[in-house]
Amino acid sequence: MKATTISSIMLAVAVLVTGCHKAEDKPGMGPAQEAGKAIDDAGAKAAAETREAAANANAAAQQAGENAKVAADRAGEKVQQAGAEVRQESHEAAQNVKEGAKDATAATGRGLERAGEKLQQAGK
């Protein structure tokens, strides 16, 4: 709806509510003045509520930003920790492979020695 239409409706409602007689509790104010005051009061209340809602939304957005930053920091720390653990485990696995290779080389050497000994005995 257009603002002028809303204002017109509010004015009509205010006039109907106040009636067409002078207010006895507000000397000197006629129906149009009362309607104008009602519209002004409604506008001021709406503006105050809008400012309060905007402030609340801003505070909520700032808190959400803080929460996101904290979460990102925690995630970064966890990624770094996981990377360190992976590097350590990779190092340990490499050590195990080296030891396994030594053991395999030693076992192969012993096997070749026995095979050589058997060949020597067979050749005698």
What can be said about the biggest beta sheet?
Answer: none
Structural class, judged by helices and strands? mainly alpha
Shape descriptor reads rod-shaped
Question: Which spans of ≥5 residues are poorly predicted at pLDDT below 50?
Answer: none
What distance lies between the first and last C-alpha atoms, to the nearest angstrom?
115 Å
Q: What fraction, in percent, of the residue positions are helical?
A: over 70%
User: What is the number of independent domains?
Assistant: 1
Number of strands: 0
Rounded radius of gyration (Å) = 44 Å
Summarize this, please?
The protein is mainly α. The chain has helices spanning 3-18, 31-123. It has one domain (3-123).
Q: Could you explain the architecture of this structure?
A:
The chain is mainly alpha-helical and 124 residues long. It is rod-shaped and about 140 Å long. Helix 1 crosses helix 2. The mean pLDDT is 80. It is built from two helices and no strands. Helix content is 88%, strand content 0%. The chain has one domain.
